[in-house]
Design goal:
8 helices; alpha+beta; single chain
Length: 382
């Protein structure tokens, strides 16, 4: 069963000091100190004080993507200099790193079944910087139900909401309304022709990608660390996640932590093979005028539904993708891409991810002029 480490937070060690892996000795690891935020004596939610809920411990997650390699002529938004240049101040942590803080809540509320048929679907609201304390909450599930959906959210120490959404167990996509589904349904028609999204809704990738997360190999350019390195700083460690103790799990082998579900489906996980989208005149035009440049991006929302889990490390899966939504806000264009993760041997759908990628307009030099040309091209096609 899950044994939480109470009021313990990840911190960076002094330069040159090498820690003992948490997976080997989590209770005495020098990277864990008693560092509760100033107002950490409350277990109730500040933003939803009247909701009967389960709450996690205060945790200080790491920005582990400062060295993320994204191409496109720029660094990722998780780089401090890049974040400051586009008006974000300090670099934000990538949103799905917070998913692991829900591990003890899922296990308490849903049991191991969450790893077999669970879901998590969130909208990111306010950013979190390196080592800022945050706390996870989940509406208390009904213990008499094997299949159900509840609300989840996360808060800063001052009560500001980091993310909000839904989590479930035992339900399929058509049996619930998730946060991502609600956001997709609320997309407003675009006036003009998006610059960064060059394919029509419903477009599918033309290749089958490989996806794999290993304990001792770097996940890929998007996640420049190994699973073992991730487990050394993960906010909620569990023996089921580790190579040495994974056989203790109900499935007799290690399973991926919640945040790693995004890692294995985002792309380039254990492979250099990119997703291939159909070649269209619209896509070719943007490639030519952009000169290979891309905007700085970040996640607006993300959902994973596990159909036939768990999802395992050291296992190669097949991946395909579909564009399921697109739109814009005053500051960004966005798309929603659904990724399907299938068992390579049987073809069975193991899990799917629906991800909203926000592409920041101000980060792309000449956006206004090129968007005007894109709009003109769109009108010419009508």
């Amino acid at each position: 069963s899950f044994q939480p480490r109470r009021q313990v937070f990840c911190v960076i060690l002094p330069q040159g000091e090498v820690p003992t892996p948490l997976a080997q000795n989590p209770q005495t690891h020098p990277a864990y100190l008693e560092m509760a935020p100033a107002k950490s004596n409350f277990d109730r939610s500040v933003s939803r004080p009247n909701v009967d809920c389960l709450s996690g411990e205060w945790r200080r997650p790491h920005n582990d993507l400062q060295e993320q390699r994204v191409g496109g002529g720029h660094k990722a938004i998780h780089d401090d200099e890049t974040a400051a240049r586009i008006g974000f101040g300090k670099a934000p942590i990538h949103g799905t790193v917070h998913w692991s803080q829900f591990t003890p809540l899922f296990l308490e509320g849903f049991g191991p079944a969450w790893f077999e048929s669970g879901s998590i679907s969130v909208h990111f609201i306010t950013p979190v910087n390196h080592l800022q304390p945050v706390k996870a909450f989940m509406e208390r599930p009904d213990p008499s139900k094997k299949a159900q959906q509840v609300s989840i959210w996360m808060e800063h120490a001052d009560g500001r909401v980091v993310l909000e959404g839904t989590a479930s167990v035992g339900l399929k996509a058509g049996e619930m309304t998730t946060m991502a589904q609600s956001k997709l349904a609320s997309i407003k028609p675009v006036k003009g022709n998006l610059l960064f999204v060059r394919h029509p809704i419903g477009t599918k990738t033309t290749n089958v990608e490989s996806a794999r997360v290993d304990f001792d190999k770097e996940v890929g350019n998007a996640f420049p660390f190994t699973l073992n390195q991730k487990l050394d700083i993960i906010t909620e460690y569990h023996p089921w996640f580790a190579q040495s103790t994974g056989q203790q799990s109900p499935w007799g082998r290690a399973v991926l932590p919640p945040e790693a579900l995004n890692q294995i489906m985002l792309g380039f996980a254990g492979t250099d093979e990119p997703p291939k989208w159909p070649s269209t005149p619209e896509a070719k035009w943007f490639q030519e005028v952009s000169g290979g440049r891309t905007p700085v991006g970040l996640f607006g929302g993300c959902e994973v539904i596990i159909h036939n889990g768990p999802v395992y490390p050291e296992e190669t899966y097949d991946v395909t993708r579909e564009l399921v939504g697109a739109g814009e806000t005053p500051r960004a264009e966005f798309n929603w891409v659904r990724t399907y993760l299938k068992d390579r041997k049987t073809g069975v759908l193991v899990a799917e991810m629906t991800l909203q990628s926000m592409m920041l307009k101000q980060s792309f030099d000449g956006y206004a002029e090129l968007r005007a040309k894109s709009d003109e091209l769109g009108r010419a096609k009508l």
